[in-house]
Amino acid sequence: MLLDRPLRGVVGLRTAKVLAAQLDLHTVRDLLHHYPRRYVQRGELTDLAHLTVGEHVTVQAEVREVRVRSLSRRPGHLLEVTVTDGRDELLLKFFNQRWRQRELRPGVRGLFAGKVEQFKHRRELNHPDYQLFDGDDPVETFAGALIPIYPATATCSTWVLARSVRVALDLLDSTADPLLDPLPADVRARHHLVDLAAALHAVHRPASTADAARGRARLKWDEAFVLQVALAQRRAAAQALPATPRPARPGGLLAAFDARLPFPLTAGQREVGDLVAADLAGSHPMHRLLQGEVGSGKTVVALRAMLTVVDAGGQAALLAPTEVLAQQHARSVRALLGPLAAAGELGGAPIATRVALLTGSQSASARKTALDEVASGAAGVVIGTHALLHEGVEFHDLGLVVVDEQHRFGVEQRDALRAKASRPPHVLVMTATPIPRTVAMTVYGDLETATLTELPPDRSPVRTHVVPGANAAWVERMWGRIRDEVQAGHQAYVVCPRIGGADDAGVDHAGAEEETGEDPRGGPGEGPGGGRGRRAPLAVLDVLPDLVAGPLAGLRVAALHGRLPTEEKDEVVRAFAAGDVDVLVATTVVEVGVDVANATVMAVLDADRYGVSQLHQLRGRVGRGTAPGWCLLHTETPEGSPGWERLAAVGATGDGFALARIDLEQRREGDVLGAAQSGRRSSVKLLSLLRDEELIRAAREGASALVARDPELADHPALAAALAAAVDEERAGFLEKA
Ligand code: ADP
Ligand code: MG
Fold first, then answer.
1. Cα–Cα distance, 245 to 312 (Å, whole number)
2. Which distant-in-sequence residues (6+ apart) come within 8 Å of 712 by Cβ?
């Protein structure tokens, strides 16, 4: 097919080499999907006042003046060409190229491309590339009044691209090989989309701005549709696998557990529970994403699913991202189960099972006991960090894998655990915080989703305030609030971005110091507020002595962070849970899972260093009981700054879905969709997770229907080809990010 033709036969060997080396463009398809970054109106000069030093620019300007100067210190000439937009000027410098005077005459207009440099308060381009508009004769490279400006590099200018694209488009027009359109005709008709050839023409050589927009709208569809077809195929493939059905059993552990629960399930928990139970009863593996508002009670939903599987004779594993969280889960699951988790012990219920905990740092004997229980099947419920994935961990009959706080796990880890089952296990993935719908449909798009939106009814809202660090009275009130809450018998958190101390390696990424690696959402310090040249973020070990000697004098204060030895961490969490510690000064290790209902106030220091979803998750640590909670976001960022506005947004809403959208706005799309960071080619260029929700939803619907009719794309060869082109390494990486 024409699109797969290598460029060297189309644009010539030399240009093809440049396109490959500079922009990673190898085929006609690559080239035609390298879209203009913007368009300039022919004759409309570029505003020269706003050029940024250091940037590679392409400007449309008019030559005003040309001078030749002899160099004073060495032989040779300097050609100085001043170009203008009618108001501001830019200097172009050429060494020993006097012959350029012949074409760079005053009054001539053209495009000039180069890196902006500054010399004695004047901005200049040294040896820029240029393309002149000769009189009324339009430069043949550019067809119409709108000149496309391509993402270019220093040695591959926008007009080299424009020329190459023109050759490719002409070939496309003249070829007998028709351009097969990957978008099925019915999809195009339903959504009023132009065909592929028309879209490519419109984007590269637009007759008007509206024309260009039509082209882009259509090409955006290609991106969404191809992606959704890939995801639909993955869903279909997963659904085709065999799994052991684990139907609910009346009168089993689950029923006994429900009878023991100290609270009624929320309607949402019951609904999602039924959905999951139906999945588990099926003979194909469940692949479901459970997302929900912070504090909505996802753990109970997961535990009920696990008990269903145990009732059906299987085992269930819960994979937690950090050791603190794994231990916390084990503790709370054992507490919730009570005698139901005490099989073989005095007081254990007759139908009881056991809960095994496996972490990287437990003692050899504890590990041996746990491994035996897992291998024999005595432990129906297995909780652990990624130590669960290690060799030597054998399950008797693994039926369900629950992945908690999925954003911290790579898919390889999920697959490694899956491989421990003789048949594909059911998989339930839980996200820590709500995620925008578009992220659910793309990054997690191979999973069915279920969402918990309501909180248990007895919760009091957490009141959130931004505390300006510069205002001593406010800061004093913050500490006063903590003292008051402790006075009233409650407990408090003080959260800092860093650990501090002698060998401080910097930011304490949530969980990064533990065995699961770094948090791909970006930890503190990477937020949009994190700029250069600011003081280091506050650190646990640095503020601790000041707090104990000052505002928190007389209170029982303890520190918790990732560098503590495991037993100590565990001991601190236990003491805090038991009420033996009033104030926990901690890094974001408390972000997930630490569940102490008596804690009613949290002060987050240098709060602007965190993303808004992370703050929302942190805030979820208080207000878990019935007493009202407080969240105090301390910051030195000035009022009205973007950092302050983000904190104000956290204060203004308790809606995690709304905050997730804000988070998305603050990150570059590429960070979410994978590729752009690396600067490599990505098949997702136009699609926006923020703006294209409706499109993504429609594409998903269309793709699912198509894959249901034609799973192998046998009747859609052009779509199959587009998919194959997209599923290169990087794309695989993107899909795997779930
Ligand atoms: P998250 O969804 O953020 O992971 P958790 O599962 O940690 O939330 O639950 C938060 C707290 O709410 C826990 O202490 C849990 O025991 C409690 N909880 C869960 N479901 C209910 C309910 N239906 N009613 C009251 N409390 C509940
Ligand atoms: Mg949780």
1. 8
2. none
**CA nearest 62: which of 39, 42, 78, 79?**
42
Q: Give 600 Cα–ligand 2 centroid separation in angstroms.
A: 18
- Measured CA to CA, the distance from residue 10 to residue 27 in angstroms comes to 9
DSSP 29: H
Ligand 1 pocket residue status of 404, Cβ below 6 Å: no
Phi-psi region for residue 95, left (φ > 0), alpha (ψ -120 to 50) or beta? beta
Q: How far is the CA of 409 from the centre of ligand 1 (A)?
A: 23
Predicted confidence at residue 350, as pLDDT, reads 87
Residues 6+ positions from 437 with CB-CB distance below 8 Å: 693, 697
The structure tokens 């903590």 sit at 482
Distance, in Å, from the CA atom of 640 to the CA atom of 636, rounded to the nearest integer, reads 12
pLDDT at 127 over 70: yes
Q: Sign of dihedral through CA atoms 41, 43, 49, 53?
A: positive
At which residue do the structure tokens 């913050």 appear? 478
Q: How far is CA 316 from CA 278, 397, 694, in A?
A: 16, 9, 37
What are residue 601's DSSP bridge partners? Answer: 492, 630
Tell me what pLDDT residue 579 has. 95
Among 263, 270, 272, 300, the mutation site with the greatest number of ligand 1 atoms within 8 A of its Cβ is 300
Q: Is residue 266 within 6 Å of ligand 1 at its C-beta? A: yes
Q: Is the pLDDT of residue 526 over 60?
A: no
- Per-residue pLDDT band for 702 (boundaries 50, 70, 90) equals very high
pTM for the whole structure: 0.78
Q: Which amino acid is at 22?
A: Q
293 lines ligand 1 (CB under 6 A): no
- Ligand 1: atom nearest CA of 266 is 23
pLDDT-based confidence at residue 625 (cuts at 50, 70, 90): confident
Instruction: Judge if the beta carbon of residue 600 lies within 6 A of ligand 1.
Output: no
Q: Are 620 and 294 in contact (CB under 8 A)?
A: yes
- What are the φ and ψ backbone dihedral angles of 643, each rounded to 5 degrees? -60, -45
Distance of alpha carbon 232 from alpha carbon 460, whole angstroms: 41
* CB-CB contact of 237 with 430 (8 Å): no
